[in-house]
């Protein structure tokens, strides 16, 4: 078995355990229990932190896109989402196009 | 959606929801992942198993990055890093479980592999509109469809890797955080999520002063705890 396969197997088992433990722990609580509210806040905050980092300090190919273009895509996408009934797909497409357009402008 | 009361109908609604914006975001991200797997010298089978067995992109990327360097630091640090960046599965599972309205925990076993950011965030948004008795069916429909989309996209990415230049890859990688940002923005009118978004974003800076694999988790725990306490101080509103 190669190193990559061992790493994959161990990570997959650990991720399954994390999910299973969460389900098992939550089974004893009602939906309005403070522990559930706390876990929800942590999950949402983690997602918000992930988005913030991915937009402001990305790694890989996205790091080559100017920050202004990334922020423009995000801003335009969110604005379209909030303006047009929180419809995600058009907002996603418009946000992506805005990012690509400004990147092309800045490069040109 | 609340008018749907059959399990089959709810599962179909879930599958339909998964091929909308969520499907586009998922496909774009996993396409880029498939390309990265090929560049790291791994097999398409490895890409597929990583998608379906881990089903958490940050952790998958940690392993690919470690594989591309030949695991010079050893397997254990790579695995620990992958687990740390995917540790959000724990609070997500805790948060979503009561919303299924299922008394018998073993009935939730089929849903466990699908507890990941995209199905979780979509479910948190959709569940208020879905009758409690069929939420599990909706989630299974959504999760299974997302899984299939993710696997196929990763395989496609693996085989078209040579055709994707840096510009194309950057565009694909941008879709994922943009989609999550839109999911969060759609909830910004509710005080609880608004506080969590604000505190989580503010805490993101912690990633620059903590070990890279633990940074996101630390930001989530600290930001989320402050948001929770803030909400309690305001009477849970």
What's the layout of helices and strands?
The complex is a heterodimer of chains A (108) and B (237).
Chain A: H1 3-26, H2 34-56, H3 67-83, H4 88-107
Chain B: H1 7-18, H2 21-39, H3 44-54, H4 57-68, H5 75-85, H6 89-96, H7 117-126, H8 135-159, H9 166-185, H10 191-203, H11 212-233
Helix pairs in contact in B: 1-8, 2-3, 2-4, 2-8, 2-9, 3-8, 4-5, 5-11, 6-7, 10-11
How is this structure best described in words?
The complex is a heterodimer of chains A (about 110) and B (about 240). Chain A has about 110 residues and is mostly helical. Helix content of chain A is about 80%, strand content about 0%. Chain A is flat, with a radius of gyration of 20 Å. With about 240 residues, chain B is an all-alpha fold. Chain B is globular. The chains are: A mainly alpha (about 110), B mainly alpha (about 240). Chains A and B meet through helix 1, helix 2, helix 3 and helix 4 of A and helix 2, helix 3, helix 4, helix 5 and helix 6 of B.
Strand content of chain A is: under 5%
**N-to-C span of chain B:** 26 Å
Q: Characterize the largest beta sheet of chain A: strand count, sense, and whether it forms a barrel.
A: none
3D shape of chain B? globular
User: What proportion strand of chain B?
Assistant: under 5%
Count of DSSP H/I helices of chain A: 4
Which percent range fits the helix content of chain A? over 70%
Through-space gap between termini of chain A = 49 Å
Number of strands of chain A: 0
Briefly note the structural class of the backbone of chain A. mainly alpha
Total number of helices of chain B: 11
Query: How is the biggest beta sheet of chain B arranged?
Result: none
What's this, in brief?
With 108 residues, chain A is mainly α.
Features:
heterodimer; A: 108 residues; mainly alpha; 4 helices; flat; B: 237 residues; 11 helices
